[in-house]
Amino acid sequence: MSLHPFVSSTLAIDHLQFAQNGVWEEVQTVYPNSFEDLYNLSDWLDRAGRDVAVETLFLDERSELFGFLGVRTKDFPSADRTLMWMRLATSTASEKSKPFSELMSLCLTALKLPPALPDIEPTFELGVFNFWNTAVPVILGKSPVEKLTELIAKQRGPSWLYEGHKAPICLEYVWQVPTHLWISRNISTKSNDLYFIDMEKVKRVYYNKAT
Question: What is the pTM of this model?
Answer without folding.
Answer: 0.94
